[in-house]
Design a protein that fits this description.
single chain; alpha+beta; Immunoglobulin-like; 17 helices
């Protein structure tokens, strides 16, 4: 018996860097505009001001971790209102499902942060090293003065972009002008410097070197998107019934595709869309621009590569007209996603406008469950958390009610049933509720109790806000 001692084939190979060629066209222009808009929003937003009064920060968008609040222009979200954040995350997910169902991975191709920063880094690379062929020559060139100089310039600009990215992120969590001065002076908190360093490094590596590898291997969406798509989803495809067989345009019988590789050379993912739908495709449309440019020069119709659905492909092969874009966009699946998305949005808006500027949370003190006083009456103790969302101090009036019984209330450390709650703060206050010994509340084991809190306001700013919290009163049973 003979044994094969030959070396087994290598199943893995090193990453081959991709150098996309520059292209002009409708989709490339759209990507430039979206990149400018999204980067502008990200970098500028922390510097926008919004006057909320003397006791609140004036930064328009602020995640105030110290006071556990989130500010978005005129909206203020408190910790107990996290359902607003959860609702926005649900809307973001439903929106992603909706856009993917309608037009494939348009989020990935146009607005994903990985795509946007990679586009920016490739723009810098092209500016420093030249277009595709020049970058390829430089990549395979031995290290010399030219290569060191160009790489040093490129990496320096990349690092500065990464530094601006990390710096912009931390500005969302504290007053931006103050933090900027502290960062320059070296007096900022170490966490700020660490966060900037980490985000600078990740932006530099992900946008400059990992690029398409993040989309293919790190991002879960390429593996999930198939569940969102169906035969009516618009996505980028190659009309092989028109393009094949490939070859020179001058040869009779050849299709419209001249196999110029323009669609491959401009692809930031390095794939050939003519091979069919692939997980790596982010539907950015650059291959459409490149192919349309070639078709223009050959005086042939555009859209050899274009957005089309499986139903369109079947119809075109049979010589039938395509569906309209609206029939692809508005179909049962996308209508359901739109309805769910709108429903969550309407619920959040309603909750935002219906919420009061005061709130109360009641925690019964159960050690002991009740106290028997000298006259036989029963007393329960409750801990109130009174929340004042106004920008000024407010007086809160406390009351309580239980079915069929009169109750006697006292507040710890207070002369009456009013509590002064500071502006934009939560105050803890103990409440004692007493029932006379001969009442049904004192004799029953448990009685439903409703504690009311009314905003007494101020002389200059009266209010009619009134909230309640339901709990129980424990009796002798």
């Amino acid at each position: 018996m003979s044994h094969d001692n030959s070396t087994p084939p290598n199943l893995f190979s090193a990453q081959e860097p991709i150098f996309p060629r520059r292209v002009k066209g409708t989709f490339r222009t759209l990507k430039w505009w979206i990149m400018a808009f999204t980067l502008g929003v990200y970098y500028i937003t922390p510097w926008l001001r919004w006057d909320r009064g003397p006791n609140l920060p004036d930064q328009a968008v602020l995640v105030d971790l110290a006071h556990r609040r989130f500010f978005f222009f005129m909206i203020e979200i408190w910790p107990h209102e996290f359902y607003f954040i959860a609702g926005l995350l649900i809307m973001a997910g439903l929106g992603l499902f909706l856009f993917t169902s309608a037009a494939g991975r348009v989020w990935c191709g146009y607005a994903c942060p990985q795509t946007v920063w990679t586009d920016l880094y490739i723009l810098v690379e092209r500016w420093v090293e030249g277009d595709r062929n020049a970058r390829l020559r430089l990549y395979h060139q031995a290290w010399n003065g030219e290569k060191v100089r160009k790489r040093a310039v490129k990496w320096t600009i990349w690092l500065l972009i990464g530094l601006a990215t990390g710096g912009a992120w931390v500005f969302y969590f504290t007053d931006a002008p103050t933090l900027a001065r502290d960062l320059v002076a070296g007096t900022a908190h170490p966490v700020a410097y660490m966060t900037i360093a980490i985000l600078t490094a990740t932006t530099f590596v992900f946008g400059g070197f990992a690029r398409e590898q993040i989309c293919i291997y790190a991002c879960p969406w390429p593996r999930i998107q198939a569940a969102m798509m169906d035969e009516d989803t618009l996505t980028i495809g190659y009309r092989d019934w028109r393009g094949e067989p490939r070859g020179k345009a001058s040869v009779a019988g050849n299709g419209d595709c001249i196999d110029c590789m323009a669609c491959v050379n401009v692809c930031p993912m390095g794939i050939d869309i003519r091979d069919g739908q692939q997980m790596a495709c982010i539907t950015c449309g650059l291959c459409i621009d490149a192919c349309n440019d070639v078709m223009t020069r050959l005086d042939k119709p555009h859209s050899l590569i274009g957005y089309l659905a499986l139903t369109d492909e079947t119809a075109e092969r049979a010589g039938k007209p395509r569906k309209s874009v609206w029939k692809h966009v508005f179909r049962p699946r996308t209508i359901v996603y739109t309805a769910l998305w709108a429903g969550v949005g309407i619920a959040l808006i309603a909750a935002l406008f219906l919420r009061t500027e005061i709130d109360v949370n009641v925690t019964p003190v159960r050690n002991p469950q009740f106290v028997v006083l000298s006259d036989g009456s029963i007393r329960n103790t409750y801990e109130l958390r009174l929340r004042n969302k106004h920008g000024e101090d407010r007086w809160f009036a406390i009351s309580a009610s239980a079915a069929g019984s009169a109750l006697f209330l006292t507040l710890e450390g207070q002369e009456d049933l009013r509590v002064l709650v500071p502006a934009n703060e939560t105050k803890t206050q103990k409440l004692y509720v007493t029932a006379a010994h001969d009442t049904g509340t004192a004799k029953a084991e448990r009685t439903d109790l409703r504690i009311w809190v009314e905003d007494a306001g101020t002389t200059a700013s009266p209010s009619t806000d009134r909230v309640h919290h339901d709990t129980v009163f424990n009796g002798k049973g």
